Amino acid sequence: MTASWPHSCSARTPFHLAVFVMTAVAFTSTMTQNTSEIMCGFISQKDEGSEAPQTSVAPKVPNILEDLGCYLNSQGTENIYQTIKNVEVNVFEDIELRITMSIPNIISCFWFFKKSKACELSFDSENRYITSLAFSQIKEGQAGKYTLLVTSKSGNYRVVVPVLIQKKPAKPYFRKRDKSDSIECISESYPQPSVEWIFCKTPEKSCPYKRHEETGEIDGKQMVQHELFQTYIWCCAVNVLGRECTSLFTIDLNERQAAPFPELLLKVSEPLLIRCRAVHQNYKFRIQLSFENREVEQGCHFEGLEYQENFSAIRIQYVFVSAAEKNYSGHYTCSSTAHPNQTALITVLEKGFINITDSKEDFEIGEEEFCFEVNFTAYPPVRCMWLYSNRTFPCIQSYSVGGHSISSKFCNHQHQSGIYVFYAENDDAVATKKFTLYVRRKPEIRMQLLFKQISCVAEGYPASSWVWRNCLELNSSNCAEEITEGIQNFLPERRSLGSWISSSTLHVKETATTFSVECCANNSAGSACEKRFINLSVAGAVSSPLDNAAFYVSVGFFLLLITFVLVFFFLKYKKQFKYESQWQMIQMIGPSDNEYIYIDFREFEYDIKWEFPRENLEFGQVLGSGAFGKVVTATAYGINNAGDSVQVAVKMLKEKPDTAEEDALMSELKMMTHIGSHENIVNLLGACTLSAQNKMKMN
């Protein structure tokens, strides 16, 4: 193969994913305008397992509508609304953006994020327009600004809603800093990560001897080249949701050449950075990085030298490209005048991939510890999760030394049978793998006594086999005599995943009046037995002492129920006397305070002149209600003169009143006719007592 080093190693636009941290700012002048015209909110069904420790499952938190605080930011030919709060959610969370608009005559509306989508409008209880945008298990690629464009007869509107997805840091990457011989480490995520450098003498990033520096800067921490002479260098990004690390790709001439060649994967437009390192007893040696046996062009590499305490020297050389292209793929060789050459393979991809290794998918376990495991290769790094029964669980990834072979284990199945799914995605690919778990369970038995039959049903996994035994004595625990005749075993039925229903029936022969029988179900997880004392009745039915006990329990329950009903009716009968009419008037018959008599209006006659036609009443709203009935407003027509109308209050009984309630209303009516009109009291205008419907009086 003949190849030459591509030109313009730094002229191309550097690959850099911008990280924006949106800050809520209080606008005092614009927020006061039309604050109620558009309202923005979002509903989040949080999945507590998505970022939780792997020891817990993921219950769903109830939906709550959160107000984002929409305000009018700009007014003109287009009214632009923005939110005070950003939408901050976890990856793989279910969310819904909801916009409520008090805008008349909407002609059209569209949601826009990378491409437009017509919105669907509905109305709330206040007759306002509502449109929603729902996300099921939102992905990182769906983070950004969502815009709602609305056109109405009154004007045009734009509503901007930023959506930030909280996640642990993306795997850091390295690049040369512009206009300086220094390396920077970058990781994008929200919340903003800090960056940590670790220097090790062994390939593991958990080395006991390390030095690190931290920063909160978005662009990471730059390290000048004289600080990067260590054997193994790691950069780790950390935020509240997790930690991710990447090793600086190095060809070390003091290490044995790996077989096959170590490989670095990149995507088109990502930065390329390779380090060549060598240690020698003195400084009198040179090193060089070449591409396909050709020298790298000037300006695309830099090098450094450091002396050790024992007077040995460390030389390093970097080859860098700000934005790699496909033609940068190939073999890169690090050579030295004092060491054997070593080579690494760089592969620049058009797009990313996820390849899951074929493996066993069905598992049957007992009580032993067990973990699902998925092995795959992928680039760029993936986001992943485990799913079971509509719940999500966190996914923990373990990387090989090269960083491309990845594994993920899931142990939190809690010995529940079912289908488990591994889900992984990156910017370019999606992959899933399905597993089925069967958990062995010993049988659980139910015995049923039928006419001349005894039936046993067992549930467990796998399906059960049956053994029937006859007990030598009535209450003996020694049931050694196996029954082989009169047994009918039925084919097992699969009721649910990992559960079999098995049944067996014993047909009873009338050779004995009383006996004990035992049925036992067995599978690979264990066995279970059920025993009963059987009594054959004259009619040939099968019964047991447990049946008699159930009979007595049933009789006792019905007796208790009858007693409760009798007490209820007795108390209700006593309560009726509380509703007797108390409408009585005291009439003085002498000068002393105790010289009076009671007048009971139930003994008075009702004067029919107060009767008013019911059809001349037009009822309005209810003013109040109580135990006996209600009071409503009404318009009475012709109460004084024909054609006149008067606003009145009508007191009426409820539907189907009892005699005591009718007597009470009639006593009140007779008392008011006896008292007559007065300016300081409510005056009687008429009554409707002759109708078959509710009696009422007008005030």
User: Structural class, please?
Assistant: mainly beta
* Uncertain parts: 11-35, 47-60, 215-222
If classified by CATH, what would the architecture of the largest domain be? Sandwich
CATH class of the largest domain: Mainly Beta
Assembly state: single chain
The radius of gyration is: 44 Å
Describe it.
The chain has 699 residues and is mainly beta. The protein folds into 5 domains: 38-44 and 63-166, Immunoglobulins (Immunoglobulin-like, Sandwich), CATH 2.60.40; 173-207 and 221-349, Sandwich (Immunoglobulin-like), CATH 2.60.40; 353-439, Immunoglobulins (Immunoglobulin-like, Sandwich), CATH 2.60.40.10; 441-534, Immunoglobulins (Immunoglobulin-like, Sandwich), CATH 2.60.40.10; 588-698, Phosphorylase Kinase, domain 1 (2-Layer Sandwich), CATH 3.30.200. Helix content is 7%, strand content 47%. It contains 2 helices and 53 strands. Strands 3, 4, 5, 7, 8, 11 and 12 form a 7-stranded mixed sheet that branches. A 5-stranded antiparallel sheet has the order 2-1-6-10-9, with no helix packed on it. Strands 20-27-26-22-23 form a 5-stranded mixed sheet, with no helix packed on it. Strand 47 (584-588) and strand 48 (596-600) form a beta hairpin. The chain is flat. The chain starts with 37 loop residues before the first strand and ends with a strand. Mean pLDDT is 81; it is low at 11-35, 47-60 and 215-222.
